[in-house]
Amino acid sequence: MYRTRLPVAAAVLALLVCLPGCSSASTAVEACMGKQAVGATSGELAGTYRGEGDAEGVTLTLTASPTVPGSGTVTVHDWPTGDWYRSELGDTFDGSGTWSVVQGGTTATEFARLSLSFTAPKRLLDGDTLDSLSIAETDGRISLYTQDDPDVCPAFRLRHQDN
After folding, report:
1. How far apart are CA 92 and CA 77, in angstroms?
2. Nearest alpha carbon to residue 154 among 124, 118, 130
3. Which helix (H) or strand (E) is 159 found in, with range?
4. What angle do CA 154, 126, 149 make, to 5 degrees?
5. Torsion of CA 10, 16, 20, 22, to 10 degrees
């Protein structure tokens, strides 16, 4: 009996010792999404993003403004509706509006965010739906996500699709 427990215990111990050291990520977000961005440009962000996890089926398209850096227009499909308008619009909506980058600060915890402002549907008010996303990058690919807990991989996440 002890002969089988010892190899199993050794294997489990080796796995537990390796897990924290096997990843160079400093947070759960970085382990599954990439490095959190301090800044981002229109050129880096423009394109279509597809949802994963809780965002499965969601599409977000960012088009860069030709005149205002770090901003542009946004189009969403199956975007989550806020509680206030769920009875009128359903659980999700298709809409459009504008976007801008809120650059990160100078401390280690201030990261860039994507701010969304919806103009359609017209009844939608600021803050009534998801209107701010964090930005991450890995291997030159941008991801957008909501961040509730830095110790857990974000459930609502969107990945940039290569053209």
Report:
1. 8
2. 130
3. strand 156-160
4. 20
5. 50
Return the pLDDT at 114.
94
58 token code pair:
């969601």
Please report, for residues 36, 104, 109, 114, the alpha-carbon distance to residue 51 in angstroms, rounded to integers and kept in the order given. 18, 24, 25, 16
Return the beta strands (E) in 22-148 as ranges.
Answer: 35-36, 47-53, 59-64, 71-80, 92-102, 113-120, 132-138, 141-145
Pull the structure tokens for residue 55.
Answer: 């965002």
Q: Quick one: which of 134, 107, 139, 141 has its CA closest to 29? A: 134
**How far is Cα 10 from Cα 57, in angstroms, rounded to an integer?**
43
- Residue range 135-141: mean pLDDT, rounded: 86
pTM: 0.77
